[in-house]
Amino acid sequence: MCRPGQIHWCDGSREEYDRLMAAMVQSGTAVPIARRPNSFLFRSDPSDVARIEARTYLSTIYPEDAGPTNNWIDPAELKKTMTRLYEGCMKGRTMYVIPFSMGPIGSPLAKIGVQISDSAYAVCNMHIMTRVGTRVLEALGTDGEFIPCLHSIGAPLEPGQHDVHWPCAPIEDKYISHFPEENLIWSYGSGYGGNALLGKKCLSLRIASSIARREGWLAEHMLILRLVSPEGRTYHIAGAFPSACGKTNLAMLRPTLPGWTAETIGDDICWMKIRPDGRLHAINPETGFFGVAPGTSRASNPVAAEMLKENAIFTNCALTDEGDVWWEEIDGPVPQHLTDWKAWDWSPDSDEPAAHPNARFTAHIRQCRSAIKDWEDPEGVPIDILLFGGRRSAAVPLVFEAFHWDHGVFLGASASSESTAAILDQVARVRRDPFAMKPFCGYNMGDYFRHWLEMGDRLGGKAPRIFYVNWFRKGSDGRWLWPGFGENCRVLKWMCDRVDGKVGAVETPLGLMPSEGDLDLSGLSIPPADLEELLRVDPDVWKAEYFDIEVFFDQFGSHLPNRLDAELKAFRDRLRRA
Ligand code: GTP
Ligand code: SPV
Ligand code: MN
What we know:
Elements: E1 6-9, H1 14-27, E2 30-32, E3 40-42, E4 56-58, H2 63-66, H3 75-86, E5 94-102, E6 111-117, H4 120-129, E7 131-132, H5 134-140, E8 147-152, E9 175-179, E10 184-188, H6 193-196, H7 199-215, E11 218-220, E12 223-228, E13 234-240, H8 247-251, E14 261-266, E15 270-274, E16 280-283, E17 288-292, H9 302-307, E18 313-315, E19 318-320, E20 325-326, E21 338-339, E22 345-346, E23 360-364, E24 381-382, E25 385-389, E26 399-401, H10 405-413, E27 416-418, E28 430-432, H11 445-459, E29 465-469, H12 489-499, E30 506-507, E31 512-513, H13 528-534, H14 539-554, H15 562-577
Parallel strand pairs: 1-5, 3-18, 4-9, 6-8, 8-10, 13-25, 25-29
Antiparallel strand pairs: 2-3, 5-6, 5-7, 9-10, 11-15, 12-13, 12-14, 15-16, 16-24, 17-23, 18-23, 19-20, 19-21, 21-22, 26-29, 27-28, 30-31
Helix pairs in contact: 1-4, 10-11, 10-15, 14-15
The structure holds guanosine-5'-triphosphate, sulfopyruvate and manganese (II) ion.
């Protein structure tokens, strides 16, 4: 159907990576970064810079199975449209066959996929982000199960036709499609991030969440972190924040509190299962980080800054005259001249940022200084604390704790966030993004809420505690009220103390909040007025939020679990009393 010029079976070797990268340098697609060994810059087409939710589809026989938060097209119709697009789409290009494993090869928790792609950039990124190659084919054998993932950038090359540096299809021809009833992924027209690295959002979240529902586990858009107290007590934390809302940064946390240390397990995807000990265990199915570059500096995220010194791929960053990558808020003075992400001259007077706000780095987990040693451990880590949250400049306090599991599910289900550059098509300034899974849930979101409630029933007394956080509250002058980044450990410490029953809490309509003096702010100079604002719950503002949540929940109709409706009513009653 795709009619490629040639076919290449990926073996996953270093030699293969080097050869593909050298060819992309040769063709002008990749720019070697002189200041960082074995590192390369790619500049995408300006129309292809992020995930596109309006072109992302969940195709099930009945629209109700996709639910109101997904784009639905009938599978037969969608396949017909896409087959027409795929017809001859790889002409003049190489078809790469990429066998990959999400999770340690051979582990009972792992899932194998085979991506067909005509993008060498996708192959190199998959090498870093997943386990690719011959080892995976061997694990598959002749009768193993795998998830087929078809990907084309949608830009056939006729003989003699000049190629562009980032071929892709126009937006109206892009389709990022999922057929969860047959565990099938078809992606057409985009070469960027989650649209093209099909092991990530497509397989590990959309398809995996639908498998997880059938099999009784959870596939979540979460970071995973191990926090160790000065006494040596270990806490495992998994947190769901929407795209570009702080997962990578929290996963690489450098605690500022003396004696506390943190280790990185994952920064984007978390698969959790109840193990024989009755607890919820988590693995990170990925092997690398595809992280937001702007804002990353030695001050904000020293672990990432060090991780990117070599062997990294950069996409849509700017280039300095000395041959280094650059982005907004990187360390050092702003250069007087740069080549921006569109390869144009840039100076500090330019109106636009030099790096695209969704510019990204790709780096392997073994380069991450804070990564846990046993990142290949198939058993995963037992989760103590679950976090939900988002980016809200007003209304939402720094931290609060759920009264119990069902209330925690309500907090996840009603989570909200402001828009970021990680999505090309912005819909609203603030939107409900339940469990940070609005763009990634592979079935009806109402049924997903029910699945979470049922997981709580199965976990009983061994369920993790649930908290909600917002690092992004601003003052009336537009300043961040909370210093964030490494200082977030202070909030996590309060949670650990809650788990251990060491500190109390104040009851508010939202949940349980730290009492005065319970947040460890030693060595931090934060104005008392800022702290008060950070923890303030304004009942009038929350009455408006309540109505917004009610409207949001209404769209799920009979799929909304009664227990969630009960939580909504209980919330209303608490607000009335406030
Ligand atoms: P995806 O990879 O899109 O899923 O994003 P992510 O959730 O991993 O977000 P990431 O950690 O890359 O952060 C996105 C942006 O938020 C970056 O510009 C960070 O600098 C900024 N950020 C992260 N943590 C904090 C924080 O605690 N406070 C503030 N003010 N900004 C933060
Ligand atoms: C996100 O948007 O949540 C990401 C980046 O992690 S992408 O891989 O493009 O989905
Ligand atoms: Mn993400």
